[in-house]
Amino acid sequence: MGQEHRIKVKIADRSYNRTIHSELEEEAIRKAAQWINEKIVKLSRLYTQVPLIDIITIVALNEGIEKFEVQKKLDENNSEIGKLSADLKNYVESLK
Q1: Residue 54: which of 69, 67, 43, 38 has the closest Cα?
Q2: What is the three-class DSSP state of 50?
Q3: Residue 22 backbone dihedrals phi, psi, to 5 degrees
Q4: pLDDT-derived band at 3, boundaries 50, 70, 90
Q5: 59 burial class (0-12, 13-18, 19+ CB within 10 angstroms)?
Q6: Which of 20, 22, 19 is nearest to 2 (CA)?
Q7: Cα 24 from Cα 13, distance rounded (Å)
Q8: Please, which residues have CB within 8 angstroms of residue 61's CB and are 6 or more apart in sequence?
Q9: pLDDT digits 0-9 by tens, 66-91
Q10: pLDDT of 96
């Protein structure tokens, strides 16, 4: 693709225009919108008396929590990789 163009995605019966720069970005936006809509539908069925804005807020909060947890695991893994790399370097140096 290479060029920017606009796409429209729908979330909770509202349309949003987005400018994208690649097919990968378009795919990510469309999948994210689909995921969000699926979560909204699921929660709306569970909590029929809860206003839509509150459902959307719960979806956003849950996504934020998940992102935080994934980032924490990534940081821990990167730290472990750094330690293993240092151990490997020390081991190789000890062989010389």
Answers
A1: 43
A2: coil
A3: -155, 165
A4: confident
A5: buried
A6: 22
A7: 24
A8: none
A9: 999 999 999 999 999 999 999 999 99
A10: 83
